[in-house]
Design goal:
By secondary structure, this protein is mostly helical. The chain has a single domain, classed as Up-down Bundle (Ferritin). It is about 80% helix and about 0% strand. The protein contains four helices and no strands. α1 runs antiparallel to α3 and α3 packs antiparallel against α4. The chain is elongated, with a radius of gyration of 15 Å. The N and C termini lie far apart (about 45 Å).
């Protein structure tokens, strides 16, 4: 089945998705001012998408014989809307790199299902990165 390395990378992805889901939801709650009000709904939507990613990855890891983590990575909400979005964009950049590596490893291990799952997730992460980048412009 899957290598220990792939299962570890999937658990890292779950921890990342849990963290950003919480982070974006708290930012949705705490964002203030005109720019905060205009971003609240999008942050909430992205938070929910990220939680669905965590669930899908956990389902896949469980199928592959791994035990999904329940521990998120460190959550950094930020103190201003600008700082929040900078943090968010950086996290999306890290996710994109990590998920590309998972796709490569899954391909190497002849695991088209994991590869396909992460290709779909990667496309959504790139959309999130684009959104945060446009907000910062």
């Amino acid at each position: 089945m899957a290598s220990d390395k792939l299962k570890e990378m999937l658990n890292q992805a779950i921890a990342r998705e849990l963290a950003v889901s919480i982070q974006y939801m708290w930012q949705h709650v705490q964002a203030k001012g005109i720019s905060g009000e205009t971003l609240k709904d999008e942050l909430r939507k992205i938070s929910i998408v990220e939680m669905k990613h965590a669930e899908a990855i956990a389902d896949r890891l469980n199928y592959l014989g791994g035990i999904p983590t329940t521990q998120p990575y460190t959550i950094q909400v930020g103190t201003s809307v600008h700082e929040m979005i900078q943090l968010d964009r950086k996290l999306e950049e890290e996710a994109i790199q990590h998920y590309r590596a998972i796709i490569d490893l899954a391909d190497h291990e002849h695991d088209p299902t994991t590869r396909h799952l992460f290709e779909l997730i990667l496309a959504q992460e790139e959309e999130h990165h684009d959104f945060f980048s446009r907000v910062l412009e």
